[in-house]
Input
Amino acid sequence: MGSLTLERVTGTNFAYNNVRFETFLGDMIRLGRRRIELWAIAPHFSIPEASAQDVTALKRQLQEREMVLHCLTPEQIMYPVNLASEIPWIRDSSIKMFSKAADIASELEGNMLFLTPGRGFEDADPAEAWNRSIDGTRQVVDYAASRGIRCVVECLQRSESNLVYSLEGLKRFISEVNHENLTAALDTPAMAAAGDSIEDYVNVFGDRLSHVHLVDGSPSGHLAWGDGSLPLGHYLRVLNDAGYTGMMSFEIFGARYASDPGAAHERSLTAVRAALEGLPAAIGARLG
Output
């Protein structure tokens, strides 16, 4: 039996791209989030443009607030970042970007780098894109290991990737990369949209399940808890019973959260606290 608590929920800036980075940091302090998953995207922190001075400044901002980086998640869906691309400059620059991200995560004394498999053209052979993604991912994961940074990869939704969009695809992908430094992340809307279950994830990956994007959906979407229809209490009970030891983050997106992302984050924390209070092994589950 596990003992999930609110301490296992990171702070995240996923819903904060329309407000200042300092506003995000202030909200996380107010909500008691000291470990963060940083979505590295302009205007907050763009990895391709980041200088050594930018990294130093970010490190100082975190240290001044007694915050630590847990996971660095480069933007890799909207930007031209694609490890599977058949266009050489896109694939090469993507490998370089992820390698730079590993350097930055190491400089910030972080733990984890978040990856996605990319996608191939819909009118091309997906097997070729798959092989490019396997090779590029292996290069990134191997380099990150040399910097002391663990890597995780998640299943995307079919609209985001034609390579890995189910648990079986994710299992095969991790197996073919075949590197001890790569583990699995679970994204609850992607899991639900694919028709997979959280029991499947914990049974297939066991202790190699190391990160969770815990958000509501209907079933897709990336919603604050209470705005969708996914079974939060069930998810937390299964993770708890499986002895899950990783972190969880609210990957919240959408125009409805743009003006007050802190309220969405606080509402999600409140929902998780209420769900945790129903778990037999829950201890110390509280805001603050």
Notes: The beta strands are 11-12, 35-40, 68-74, 112-115, 150-154, 182-187, 209-213, 247-249. The chain has nine helices and eight strands. Residues 14 and 251 are 6 Å apart (CA to CA). The chain has one domain: 6-276.
